[in-house]
Sequence to fold (376 residues):
Amino acid sequence: MSNENEQLQILEMIAQGKINAEEGEQLLRALTASEPKPRPAVVRLAPDVSATGYSPAEGASLAAELRRLGILRVSLPELQELRLHDVNPEYVAGIAGLGLASLDVDDLVNLRIHGVTAAFARALQEAGLRDLDVDDLTECAIMNVDPDYLRALREAGIEDFDVEELVECATHNVTPDFIRGMRLAGLDEFGVEELVELSNHNVTPEFIGEMRAAGLGQFAVEDLVELAVHNVTPDYLRALRQAGLDSFEVEDLAELSSHSVTPEFINGMRAAGLDQFAVEELVELSAHNVTPDYLQAMRAAGIEDLEVEQLCELAIHAVTPDFVRQVREIMPDIEVDELVEMKANGMEAADVQALKDSGYLYEDEDEQEDEEVDDA
Fold:
């Protein structure tokens, strides 16, 4: 039998009254004297229980309760850690009565540090949380998930949840009032995951009410989250309607906002002469930095009646209004696709003039045929 087990048995004998404290201390000292000299790297049990801060009787009671949990060997640092955090026999007895499996000294210390008592654990079990382990109890204590919170969630209509979901709700400030507010705002179908998403993205009942007032019709939880993620506010929605956009989906609103399509941008495009456009075209224009100023400058350079796709092609290939004016002085009837092709091949206006001067460039087929006749 190891000296560690013998020490625990001596402590139990003191607790059971078979020997008194003085006799127990003598036995402990005799046991220590019989031990071989330890090597420095080996951690021994405390030869004197008082070295840990426990009295002999208290140490004996602690040993008995630890045995109930299946903890048969405790080192001096572990005993000191237990004492430091006031893990006393009464506390261990309460925890042992919960039926938690495979506890060790670290578990007891963690439970004590986070204020997990036997009464707290039993109250959670009575409130409907079953099969709790040490991690579950610790998480609940850290996030203030108590029986009152559980009961309030049930009263708000949330019946089925596990510890992880409860902790998520508490972490993201999903309160019973928040849940009731969502129902009053018209949301009926949601689970814990959806509630966490809504709260995490600051989608409040007030936000939903204002979006409805601004003209947003049917929507699901994921729609509201997407709008919040892309900073689509009730003011933005109202301003888009005032700018002439009346028909759009939630996805359209998210795309417009994420590409910085503002009401000012839309009004500017209309003032620059672009009247007909769809939501996806506005997104394309903004994505390629086609601004109202760019459109007006292109018109001033002589490029009229441009379609959205052509404007985007011009911008993608860095066709500037100055380039258009310079080339049109050389080739007045130049087409948009030709301008794009020139820029795509790295040409400048001087290159165009040089090609025309050398006879390799013709404005149209008639001019080319006349040149061929003259050569003949």
The chain is about 60% helix and 0% strand. The first helix runs from residue 3 to 16. The mean pLDDT is 85.
